[in-house]
Amino acid sequence: MSRRCLFAMLLLCCITLNRIVAQKSVMQQQQLWYAYYNTLVINKKWQLLTDVQERHFINPVQQHQFLVRTHLHYRTKTDWSLGAGGSLFIVGNPVPGGETNLMVPELRPHIEFNHKTKSNLLGISHRYRFEARFFHNTAGNELASGYQFGNFRVRYRLGIELPLKLTSNARTPLKLKIADEVHLNFGKNITYNTFDQNRIYLSLSCDLLPDVLSLETGYLNWFQQRTTGNAYFMRHIFYLSVQQKISLLPKSPP
């Protein structure tokens, strides 16, 4: 797939969102996200991926989500990798400023399939993730015992990665990343919001230690349909993450 086709797809998503925003009731919000990603390379085929994230509103300052996620990945002989794992989300009110902010746990097991290719310097990735969502029971403004199944969700993400050269003969520790991800809900509890959300992401990544430690910062546009079906959230998010890779492979002799 050519670069023009990929950028055209992302542009089409932006245009579609703008049209929806113009026609629907949309609440604008601002958030900050902080994340730490760890990749533990067990061998040439197996990796354990773990991330921890904190997400909060800016005005007023209020916690929205905290999450811990881990999944085991198997790299095939082709450009595909397979993963399975789960995450724990602690989720607060979607609208900040209320008298209470009950933080409700959610358990989210998932499986995923990843495909990565390179065309010259351009990296292209596709991720297909399938999730099951289990929400902690609540009673009024308090947590109750047990969990209940909520729904299934399918996610597809298209990602583009482009190294940036500052000089013609220098290494390229900087990377430009663009991604678009759509979420679809399924299950008997879903009435109006089969379309759950769309996320458009633009970031700049810097390798502090090549293939070991990197810093990434960017902007994420999170457009989400509410359960009523006729109202939406438009969240503008500043994103900062640290990404670390630890390898258990034996080091090559000098």
Could you explain how this protein is built, in words?
This protein has 254 residues and is mainly beta. The protein has a single domain, classed as Porin (Beta Barrel). 8% of the residues lie in helices and 67% in strands. An 11-stranded mixed β-barrel has the order 1-2-3-4-5-6-7-8-9-10-11. The longest helix has 21 residues. The radius of gyration is 20 Å and the shape is globular. The termini are far apart. The model has no long low-confidence stretch (mean pLDDT 90).
Topology:
Layout: H1 3-23, E1 25-41, E2 46-57, E3 62-75, E4 80-91, E5 104-119, E6 122-139, E7 142-164, E8 174-186, E9 195-209, E10 213-225, E11 231-247
Parallel strand pairs: 1-11
Antiparallel strand pairs: 1-2, 2-3, 3-4, 4-5, 5-6, 6-7, 7-8, 8-9, 9-10, 10-11
